[in-house]
C-alpha cells in the first residue's frame, strides 16, 4: 500500500507564536523517515486571502514561509482548513498511487482535523501522528482549563474508528520496523 506524508502549515506565522520546537522536531523526524523509505511527501501552505488580521494573510510574506526544509517536495497552497480544498492535492496523491496518508503539522484542531476527515471521506486510509501535529493555541484560547488540544482532537479522531491516531514511536514500530 503506497503511503504519503502531508505536512500542514509549518509556517513562520504560526510557529513564531509560541514554542513549538518539540512538535517541529517530531515533524522533521517523520519527514526523514519518509525520505529514508522513499515515500512521497507534500507540504501544504495556508494563505488567508481576506483576513488581514490573520498571521497567515497573503500580504505578510515572511509569515508565510515554511520553517522546515521542503527539499524537492511539492508545496501546495490552500486557503481553507482542509488541505483538500486545493484539488491539486488529491490529483497529486492519485498520481503517486497513494492509498494511505499520514498527517503532521499545525493546527491540530483546525487544519489537521479537517484534512484528516476529508482524506478519509475521499477514500484514503488516514493516520494522524499526534505528537507531530501541534497547535499554537492553548486551553486559555478556548477558555477550557486543562485542555490538552492535541490529545483531545487525537482522541476524538481515534474514537471515530475511521482515522488512526499514533505517536511517532508507534508509527515507527508499525510502519517502518517491518518494511
TrEMBL record:
InterPro entries, alphabetized: Isochorismatase-like_dom, Isochorismatase-like_hydrls, Isochorismatase-like_sf
Keyword hit for rRNA-binding: no
Boundaries of every Isochorismatase-like domain copy: 4-140
GO molecular function, one term: hydrolase activity
Cleaved signal peptide residues: none
Alphabetical keyword list: Hydrolase
Ranges in coiled-coil conformation: none
Highest taxon of the lineage: Bacteria
Family: Belongs to the isochorismatase family.
Identification of the protein by name: Isochorismatase family protein
